[in-house]
Amino acid sequence: MRLKRSFLLPLAVLSLGVLPACSDDGDDNPPGTDAGADAGMDAGTDAGTGADAGDDNPGPSTEPGTCPANTLLCELFDSGNDTNGWTPSSENASIQVDSTRTRNGPGALHVVTEDGHDERQRPGTAIAQWQKRIPAFETQLFVRAHVYLRSLPGAFGQMGTFFVLSNFDADFGGFELQVMQDSGFALDDWSFREGQGWNRQPEPIQLGMDAGRWVCLEWEVRRDSTSSTHGNTRVYVDGALAHDFTNIGMRAFNNFSVGYGFVHPLGASGSETWIDNVVVSTQRVGCD
Question: Which region ranges are annotated with the description Disordered (predicted)?
Fold first, then answer.
């Protein structure tokens, strides 16, 4: 199991089918007339192997985001720096709502992780997240977010975490969706079920995560019944299936976290990421 217990404990304290592909109504090559946040440019420009930071700043969109009906959680980040019931957490990173860098205005979650942190030298993480309670997971859950990565993880073996599903109550356990240097996805399963551990999308990567543009990232979690101890979780990029992780430990997950960063930073720990239009639902919502 790769997730550090030292990362789980602060979080515990804080918490007391095929559908139509996405339509791309955003601007994947946004104008660069405004420079990124100074801290983000310094941290993210040399951080990874993704698209060159250059002038590829995610720019404003004129179309507002929407919240589909019957969702468990929907966050468009339109309340400015009001956390709107979320619990922020960060270590060697910053997280706030940015009203100038969005996919579908008026705001997006902006995460900047600091460069120069390496767990091989000293303990610590470089990650920031917003966490919120959700109804206990039953048999299916769908997460959708629009994500703009300045760069992919910059070191071999380093995983950038997007989403975490967890339970810190009696049914303790969780797992998280991650991305690797080669754009492939990984899953850290710390459900404390048989077969738990870390696994990744096998090479060669046919479809992975992109840097330097807005990506519709979807995460599907399923199990046969509420008593099933294992199930599967799929990840989609712009509506297309990238990978299906099987035999994943399941719990009655009741916390959801969104953000970005490295539980296991390896020196090239600087990054800059925007996340918009986050939806958690019991039905797939697609990319619009």
Answer: 25-68, 86-107
Answer yes or no: is pLDDT of 148 > 60: yes
Strands (E), the chain: 71-75, 87-91, 93-98, 108-113, 126-133, 140-149, 160-167, 173-179, 185-190, 197-200, 214-222, 230-237, 240-249, 255-262, 271-281
d(CA 264, CA 150): 19
Give per-residue pLDDT as tens, 237-263.
999 999 999 999 999 999 999 999 999
User: pLDDT band at residue 79, thresholds of 50, 70 and 90?
Assistant: confident
Tell me the C-alpha to C-alpha distance, in Å, between residue 151 and each of 84, 182, 189: 28, 11, 24
**Residue range 118-146: mean pLDDT, rounded:** 97
The torsion angles phi and psi of 48, rounded to 5 degrees, stand at -150, -165
SS3 59: coil
Domains contained in the chain, CATH given: 5-15+70-281 (2.60.120.200)
Measured distance CA(112)–CA(246) in Å, rounded: 32
How would residue 54 be classed by pLDDT, with cut points 50, 70 and 90? very low
- The predicted model gives 90-107 an average pLDDT of 90
Range list of β-strands (E), 11-52 = none
> From the CB of residue 213, how many other CB atoms can be counted at a distance below 10 Å?
19
How many residues would you count in the chain?
288
How far apart (Å, rounded) are the C-alpha atoms in residues 191 and 166? 8
Identity of the residue numbered 121 = Q
State how far the Cα of 229 lies from the Cα of 89, in Å rounded to an integer: 29
